[in-house]
Design goal:
It is a single chain. The chain is an all-alpha fold and 237 residues long. The protein has one domain. The chain has 5 helices and no strands. The chain has helices spanning 24-37, 45-144, 148-160, 192-198, 208-218. Helix 1 (24-37) crosses helix 2 (45-144) and helix 2 (45-144) runs antiparallel to helix 3 (148-160). The longest helix is centred in the middle third of the chain and has 100 residues, at 45-144. The chain is elongated and about 120 Å long. 1% of the residues are buried.
Length: 237
């Protein structure tokens, strides 16, 4: 019997039954360093010098942790990639076929809807002509009988009457399991350059990466309306 996905064990480095969790010694050292340095502040030149030394110690600890986990992460990354590639290779033909079937179903449904709607309009127009013909015959009969006011009223009522509405059955709904989801989309009403001049501001988005790249390239000399470029001094190890 195939094993359910929910049966798979989750890798947990902090399980209490694990006698020596991965990176356990590094964790103890890191926690000790954090506890020892957490309360120190920078208030004078001496403490500033100490903070610089502290950051060097912290940087060394960070490097040791990263170097320790690097091969594990690399192995996990390769395994994840291999699994994803294998999954994709199996799913690809299925998804391609599903896309073809989905498009065929959607195209057929659209064609049938158009045929049905055209037939509904045709029948509605036919009913309209029949109603007009009945009203005209009734008005003519009233005119012949000398009921001129009644004849006029019948014609006015026929003119003011709403157009008949004909709704035919959607035969595709007879198919079990056939369901549709309405998905609203958009496209430019004209060429993109012209459309971007017409679209309201609330539908335009800022590109933070482009602004950051511009700020780095211009180094304070750049100007963009509505944006202020500035710099920060950040200490490095």
């Amino acid at each position: 019997m195939p094993r359910k996905t929910s049966d798979a064990k989750v890798l947990d480095f902090n399980r209490p039954e694990t006698a020596a969790p991965v990176g356990g010694e590094l964790e103890v050292t890191a926690q000790s360093l954090v506890s020892r340095l957490a309360l120190s502040t920078v208030g004078d030149l001496h403490s500033l010098n100490q903070a610089v030394l502290d950051r060097q110690d912290i940087g060394g600890a960070i490097k040791r942790v990263e170097e320790f986990f690097a091969p594990f992460k690399d192995m996990a990354h390769k395994l994840h990639k291999a699994l994803c590639d294998r999954e994709t290779s199996i799913l690809a033909p299925l998804r391609r076929l599903d896309t073809v079937k989905r498009a065929a179903i959607a195209d057929f449904k659209l064609a049938q809807d158009r045929i049905r709607e055209a037939r509904e309009r045709e029948l509605a127009e036919q009913r309209r002509r029949e109603d007009d013909a009945r009203a005209a015959a009734e008005a003519a009969s009233l005119e012949a009988a000398g009921e001129h006011a009644m004849a006029a009223a019948v014609l006015e009522e026929a003119i003011a009457a709403p157009d008949p509405v004909v709704v035919l059955q959607d035969e595709t709904k007879q198919i079990d399991g056939l369901k549709f989801r309405t998905e609203w989309k958009w496209r430019f009403a004209t060429d993109e350059a012209r459309a971007l001049q017409l679209i309201p501001r609330e539908f335009l988005s800022i590109d933070p990466r482009k602004l950051t790249a511009f700020a780095k390239a211009m180094k304070g000399a750049g100007r963009v309306p509505g944006v202020v470029f500035y710099s920060e001094q950040l200490p490095v190890r």
